Amino acid sequence: MKKIISMISTLALVLSFSAACGTKTTPTTPSSTAAPTTAPSATTGGKFAAIAKGDIKVGVIHIGNPADGSGYTYAHDQGIVAMQKELGLADNQIIRKNNVNDTDPTATETAVRECIEEGANVIFATSWGYMDTMEALAEEYPEIIFSHGTGYKSNGTNMNNYFGRIYQARYLSGIVAGMKTESNLIGFVAAMGQDNSEVTGGINAFAMGVYSVNPDAKVYVKVTNSWYSPSEETNAAKALLAEGCDVIAQHVDTPNPQLEAEKAGVFGIGYNSDMSKDAPKATLTSAVWNWGAYYTWAVEKLIDGTWEGENYYGGMKEEMVDISPLNESIVAPGTKEAVEKARATILDGTFNVFDGVIETNDGKTVGEAGKTLDDGTITGKINWYFKTVTLK
User: Which of 17, 140, 296, 311 qualifies as a FRET site for 164, CA 20 to 30 Å off?
Assistant: First the structure.
């Protein structure tokens, strides 16, 4: 996803767990996107000289507008706000470029170059489609840090990528949905199809969470083919409701699927931010991001002179991802206990979601007994659906 991500709590989330936004974390590097190793500078400890806090300027490229107050861009921007507060940066040290179409390389290049002209020494680009342009400009401007949210490209020096184990939160949210459904039909509005591992992996983790508590439930997927399309997200939700789905989950930017669920008198699982503020009668919980965990970590490294160019892949342990507080008034009885039991196994490492042999919806299997899928496979090679998933 980004958007891939997931990314990558916004789980202490300013959105719903505000205490953790200032948490300093230790990243891990996915095997499929490992940055080349280069000896750090003997004088700075990193690959770039330290930048005085007062001289830091942070550019941010957003696919939407954080003023919308919900969804993907809002979650990222709340992470920037948390970083700014944690590190004590002034407002004029943050350069935002909003509503930059990630399918338009010219628009992306223009936004990045404007950040550079305005003095940015680090640029965070938050959507999948910015990746190739970031890669090209990183080569042109080796003195500037290019940090790309989701995707997989990096050069080990001045361009890295960052995301998170959002599939962990997806699994927990699947438990919530599986315990709530009465029709045993759960809808999922997806930005991209089976070829996008970020989205597909999230759907599978969600469906596996559903299956763990309700093996009779099915997950119907409707694809919008857009990271951000309010009208298509609405239409997809309506189509899934017409199929009889009584819980609507999503991997899209706006709260529109949650709003449609509320209008229909059914329930939903939000994404990116806590969408119970948008649809309080419908949203059971949301899979959420604490992007501030990464942004704080990254900018601190520039200030300290310890930037190494490594990729970042944080999970629940690092407080990068989580689910928002359960909507206790509408979740099924026993949901909290079931979620906490699964959470404990994820945190202590005895369960990794994609463990063992996994059955797909075309009668095949992936994985091996006693093993778990590696990070490279999870981030780039999940191009199959779990056995209870149907594409609509």
Answer: 140
Alpha-carbon distance 274 to 365, whole Å?
34
Q: Whole-angstrom Cα distance, residue 379 to residue 162?
A: 11
- The DSSP code sequence of 204-224 is HHHHHHHHHH-TT-EEEEEE-
User: Is residue 48 a contact partner of residue 308, using CB atoms and an 8 Å limit?
Assistant: no
At position 316, the amino acid (one-letter code) is M
Helix (H) or strand (E) holding 320: none
Spatial separation of the C-alpha atoms in residues 222 and 256, rounded to whole Å = 14
- What is the distance between the alpha carbons of residues 350 and 186, in angstroms, rounded to a whole number? 28
The conformation of residue 39, written as its DSSP 8-state character, comes to P
In order of 64, 68, 100, 112, 113, the CA distances from 107 in angstroms are: 13, 21, 6, 9, 10
Pairing of strands 389-391, 247-251: unpaired
Domains of the chain are 18-165+291-314 (3.40.50.2300), 167-287+322-391 (3.40.50.2300)
C-alpha 112/C-alpha 267 separation (Å) is 40
307 beta partners: none
Parallel, antiparallel, or unpaired: how do β-strands 122-125 and 58-61 relate? parallel
* pTM for the full predicted model: 0.84
Contact 241, 221 (CB under 8 A): no
- From 11, 1, 27, select the one nearest 160 (Cα to Cα): 27
Question: Is residue 294 within 8 Å of 79, Cβ to Cβ?
Answer: yes
